[in-house]
Amino acid sequence: MGRVLWRSSMLVSVILVTVIFQLSIGRHEKVATPPPLPILPLPSYSQLKWQQREIIMFLHFGVNTFSDREWGSGHEKASIFNPSGLNASQWASVAAEAGISLMILTAKHHDGFCLWPSKYTPHSVISSPWKSGKGDVVQDFVNAATAQRIDVGIYLSPWDKHDPRYGHDVPYNEYYLAQLQELLNKYQNIREIWFDGAKDPKAQNVSYYFSDWFSMVKELQSSINIFSDSGPDVRWVGDETGTAGNTCWSTINRTSLSIGNPDITEYLNTGDPRGTDWLPAECDVSIREGWFWHKSESPKKLSELLDIYYNSVGKNCVLLLNVPPNTTGLISDTDAHRLKEFRSAINTIFHHNLAESCSIKVSSLRGGKEGVFGPENMLDSDHLWSYWAPMEDGGKKEHWIEIRSRDGNLRFNVIRIQEAIGFGQRIKEHEIYVDGKVIINATTVGYKRLHRLLQDVEHAHVVTIRIINARGVPLISSIGLHFDPFWHSRLTVPRK
Ligand code: FUL
């Protein structure tokens, strides 16, 4: 009762203050209604940039490429690292053609071999025959990516099976920190750093000084995103299949997370609507079965990559797709070709938005018809700061968007909804109706939610999106009705 009274008196005072304000600025001057208050937690500038990338590329490369293994023993001879035609520009061209804006390289994997000439260990390119020990893969990678205007990231495995300091807390942490400083001082503008929680349970015990590592990273490069099971900027999604939860919050409680803890994978997969930290999920998966290149493996089919896309990017995550260079030091033609097909399929699906030729009605408008929060904002190319905002309602009313076809002939099989996450992730539950019949009953939306329908919708008149539960008024930055021709053919063409 007290709460209801408090709410009504708040509403009355908001209306009063608004009226007084309008009177005080005079009748002829128009000022815009300000945006609504955000709902915390919010993404940082770097997290927002990361989210908009949608697909990023992982490159697993190192001694495993030559030993045909996934996890090296740590006893590999540096002499096996000898790519006959390494050309990082080819990696960057493949990425650029696939519309990728960030590439992450395994500077050191669990085997401990370093792809750059580290002064803290001889177990690196220095001791390899490649370029007579004078090469630096990380430098080549950074140069090539930069030339294509692609950003770079680095993976530095905490688990090190080679270094004798591993197993001794202080010496190993000193070594690890020294390498972090070496990398982040030498190679500038690193946008993501990957701290992998993987480790054989039988491996030696060592405490990683994460707080020291993270502080050092932020000290050296301020616009970097730190990835680990527990962030602090990007979290692991909890599996390596490229699949986020059907419910996927970018919010979570960091205090409930720890790195390398197998018991938290489900929590990582779904996030937490009550989470106090903005920590969006990244879905890492390889284009092939393994993370490293193996002659015996081939890339996934286009239909599998599209499934992954819908299950990651389509569920509010960023897809980190691994494309491993081969023993020559190049991305194999088969993989490059598949990646190109993948990008072109995504472009084909989302290039045309049927909603653009429809009339859009909404349940209410913040600031009324004169305001700047109209439904047209959901059809422009700004998917963050231009959005439809309904009237504030104290959380009581239902909000809806009605997409009405002008000729009653809508044909689509994908529905896209995007929230203006700059104001916090809000939607808890939504439903979609086609001509009055419910076809989707789902939970979160976030930066992007894609519903790929089991059956094509044909000859539809009206599509209604109802937001039935949210952490505040929903703010929708974009909507789309699309037709995915690959999905359709997947149902009819038998899988090879
Ligand atoms: C895992 C590692 O063990 C794999 O080798 C790979 O690097 C993958 C991305 O993370 O945890």
TrEMBL record:
Enzyme class (EC, first level): hydrolase
Cross-referenced Gene3D superfamilies: Galactose-binding domain-like (2.60.120.260), Glycosidases (3.20.20.80)
SMART domains in the cross-refs: Alpha_L_fucos
Domain of life: Eukaryota
Glycoside hydrolase family 29 N-terminal domain: residues covered: 75-342
Signal peptide positions on this chain: 1-26
GO cellular component terms given for this protein: lysosome
Function: Alpha-L-fucosidase is responsible for hydrolyzing the alpha-1,6-linked fucose joined to the reducing-end N-acetylglucosamine of the carbohydrate moieties of glycoproteins.
Entry similarity comment: Belongs to the glycosyl hydrolase 29 family.
Record protein name field: alpha-L-fucosidase
Protein source organism: Lupinus luteus (European yellow lupine)
